[in-house]
Amino acid sequence: MFNTDYTVEGINQISKDCMVGHIGIEFTEIGKDYLKAKMPVDNRTTQPFGVLHGGASVSLAESMGSLGASMTIDINKQFCAGLEINANHIKAAKRGYVHGIASPIHIGKKTQVWEIKISDDEGDLVCISRITVAIIDKK
Question: What domain count does the chain have?
Fold first, then answer.
Protein backbone atom coordinates (compact mmCIF):
# COMPACT_ATOMS: atom_id res chain seq x y z
CA MET A 1 0.00 0.00 0.00
CA PHE A 2 2.74 2.50 0.92
CA ASN A 3 5.36 3.76 -1.48
CA THR A 4 8.39 1.62 -0.62
CA ASP A 5 10.79 4.55 -0.95
CA TYR A 6 9.83 5.82 2.52
CA THR A 7 11.85 4.92 5.59
CA VAL A 8 11.42 5.91 9.23
CA GLU A 9 14.83 7.56 9.14
CA GLY A 10 13.96 9.55 6.03
CA ILE A 11 10.62 10.70 7.40
CA ASN A 12 12.21 11.83 10.66
CA GLN A 13 14.94 13.66 8.74
CA ILE A 14 12.51 15.71 6.63
CA SER A 15 10.34 16.38 9.71
CA LYS A 16 13.02 17.75 12.02
CA ASP A 17 12.84 21.42 10.98
CA CYS A 18 9.06 21.85 10.96
CA MET A 19 6.31 21.64 13.59
CA VAL A 20 6.60 17.85 13.71
CA GLY A 21 10.19 18.10 14.89
CA HIS A 22 9.64 21.12 17.11
CA ILE A 23 7.10 19.32 19.28
CA GLY A 24 9.17 16.14 19.36
CA ILE A 25 7.14 13.80 17.15
CA GLU A 26 9.21 10.81 16.10
CA PHE A 27 7.99 8.28 13.55
CA THR A 28 8.85 4.80 14.77
CA GLU A 29 7.42 2.23 12.36
CA ILE A 30 6.01 1.85 8.88
CA GLY A 31 3.88 -1.27 8.56
CA LYS A 32 2.10 -2.74 5.56
CA ASP A 33 -1.04 -0.71 6.30
CA TYR A 34 -0.21 1.45 9.31
CA LEU A 35 2.18 4.10 10.55
CA LYS A 36 3.40 4.54 14.15
CA ALA A 37 4.84 7.57 15.92
CA LYS A 38 5.43 8.85 19.43
CA MET A 39 5.36 12.30 20.98
CA PRO A 40 6.71 13.41 24.37
CA VAL A 41 4.43 14.77 27.03
CA ASP A 42 6.62 17.68 28.14
CA ASN A 43 6.75 21.50 28.18
CA ARG A 44 6.31 21.61 24.39
CA THR A 45 3.07 19.62 24.39
CA THR A 46 1.31 20.27 27.70
CA GLN A 47 -1.17 22.91 28.72
CA PRO A 48 -0.50 25.16 31.77
CA PHE A 49 -2.10 22.56 34.08
CA GLY A 50 0.54 19.96 33.21
CA VAL A 51 -1.50 17.60 31.03
CA LEU A 52 -1.19 16.90 27.34
CA HIS A 53 -2.75 19.71 25.32
CA GLY A 54 -5.59 18.55 23.07
CA GLY A 55 -4.07 20.54 20.23
CA ALA A 56 -0.85 18.55 20.56
CA SER A 57 -2.84 15.33 20.19
CA VAL A 58 -4.51 16.74 17.08
CA SER A 59 -1.11 17.81 15.73
CA LEU A 60 0.15 14.26 16.15
CA ALA A 61 -2.97 12.87 14.48
CA GLU A 62 -2.83 15.35 11.58
CA SER A 63 0.88 14.69 11.04
CA MET A 64 0.37 10.94 10.97
CA GLY A 65 -2.76 10.91 8.80
CA SER A 66 -1.40 13.40 6.29
CA LEU A 67 1.90 11.59 6.02
CA GLY A 68 0.18 8.24 5.67
CA ALA A 69 -1.96 9.61 2.85
CA SER A 70 1.08 11.12 1.14
CA MET A 71 2.84 7.76 1.29
CA THR A 72 0.13 6.17 -0.88
CA ILE A 73 0.29 8.59 -3.81
CA ASP A 74 2.82 9.66 -6.42
CA ILE A 75 3.95 12.97 -4.90
CA ASN A 76 5.32 14.05 -8.28
CA LYS A 77 1.76 14.05 -9.68
CA GLN A 78 -0.45 14.71 -6.64
CA PHE A 79 -0.46 16.24 -3.18
CA CYS A 80 -2.58 15.84 -0.06
CA ALA A 81 -4.55 18.52 1.76
CA GLY A 82 -6.48 18.01 4.97
CA LEU A 83 -10.22 18.59 4.63
CA GLU A 84 -11.43 17.79 8.14
CA ILE A 85 -10.11 16.39 11.39
CA ASN A 86 -11.87 15.49 14.59
CA ALA A 87 -10.64 14.20 17.90
CA ASN A 88 -12.19 12.72 21.00
CA HIS A 89 -10.02 13.23 24.06
CA ILE A 90 -10.56 10.21 26.29
CA LYS A 91 -7.97 10.41 29.08
CA ALA A 92 -5.33 12.88 30.26
CA ALA A 93 -1.64 12.10 29.80
CA LYS A 94 0.78 13.76 32.24
CA ARG A 95 4.24 12.34 31.50
CA GLY A 96 6.27 10.06 29.30
CA TYR A 97 5.16 9.62 25.72
CA VAL A 98 1.97 9.16 23.80
CA HIS A 99 2.04 6.67 20.96
CA GLY A 100 -0.01 6.95 17.80
CA ILE A 101 -1.02 4.40 15.23
CA ALA A 102 -2.57 5.61 11.99
CA SER A 103 -4.54 3.25 9.76
CA PRO A 104 -6.52 3.94 6.59
CA ILE A 105 -10.28 3.56 6.63
CA HIS A 106 -10.71 4.59 2.98
CA ILE A 107 -8.11 5.03 0.24
CA GLY A 108 -9.86 6.57 -2.75
CA LYS A 109 -8.70 8.36 -5.87
CA LYS A 110 -9.79 11.79 -4.60
CA THR A 111 -10.16 11.37 -0.83
CA GLN A 112 -8.72 9.32 1.98
CA VAL A 113 -9.94 8.79 5.55
CA TRP A 114 -7.50 7.80 8.30
CA GLU A 115 -8.06 6.81 11.92
CA ILE A 116 -5.42 7.66 14.51
CA LYS A 117 -5.46 6.08 17.97
CA ILE A 118 -3.22 7.72 20.57
CA SER A 119 -2.33 5.85 23.78
CA ASP A 120 -0.13 6.56 26.79
CA ASP A 121 2.90 4.54 27.89
CA GLU A 122 0.60 2.13 29.74
CA GLY A 123 -1.43 1.48 26.60
CA ASP A 124 -4.52 3.40 27.75
CA LEU A 125 -6.39 5.25 25.01
CA VAL A 126 -5.82 9.01 25.33
CA CYS A 127 -7.37 10.25 22.07
CA ILE A 128 -8.99 8.88 18.95
CA SER A 129 -9.02 11.00 15.82
CA ARG A 130 -10.17 10.76 12.22
CA ILE A 131 -8.87 12.86 9.35
CA THR A 132 -10.23 13.26 5.83
CA VAL A 133 -7.62 14.16 3.23
CA ALA A 134 -8.16 15.43 -0.32
CA ILE A 135 -5.94 14.03 -3.06
CA ILE A 136 -5.28 16.84 -5.54
CA ASP A 137 -3.64 16.58 -8.94
CA LYS A 138 -0.70 18.93 -9.48
CA LYS A 139 -1.01 21.30 -12.44
Answer: 1
